[in-house]
Amino acid sequence: ALQQTANALWIGCDLGLFRCDKRTRSVRRWNKADGLLLDEVRSLWVDGQRLWIGYEFHRQSDRRSVGGVSEMSLADARIRSFIPSLSDSREPINEFDRLATEPDWHRAPSRPVRAFARTSEEQMVAAVAGVGLQAFDTRTGVWSATAPKIADRDIEIVALSGNPSRTSTT
To answer: 11 has which bridge partners?
Structure first.
């Protein structure tokens, strides 16, 4: 995953998050020990003074992918991760359950996050594998379904037209 700001190039990969300073050519790395939810960064998105981070980790033991989402303040590099409740055992285990079960739209994503986009001044969306588009209200910090609910469970890319009320997905 790649994103660019005025002063840096941000790189996400299975070793964590890297910031390459354009001026000094220095490189800084973040991983789980530095506050990332997972070392495996799947997607990045710069939104003003925030860097949104999507994760994807393939578990070999049960052949599932897990993920999640964090945001980093570009001003001070503080990381905030959105973690679903550990006591919630509703996560489907196999592919059949995944397709038959309605996602819990009000939980933070626990599946791979493949893309981000801003839909309005107050809302951004995340393309979550096996779920669809989940909305995040940046004022209240609450996750929900997008309006209208877009539950295409295999969304890879989110792009917005000039009108934020029109969201295109692929």
So the answer is: 2, 18
Contacts for 169 with CB less than 8 Å, ≥ 6 apart: 127, 133, 150, 152, 155, 157, 158, 159
Q: What's the token pair of residue 124?
A: 């951004």
* Predicted pLDDT of residue 84: 63
DSSP sequence for 57-85: EEETTTTEEEEEEEEEETTT--EEEE---
Q: What percent of the chain stands above pLDDT 90?
A: 55
**Structure pTM?**
0.81
Nearest CA among 43, 32, 18 for reference residue 111: 43
CA nearest 17: which of 156, 32, 25, 114?
32
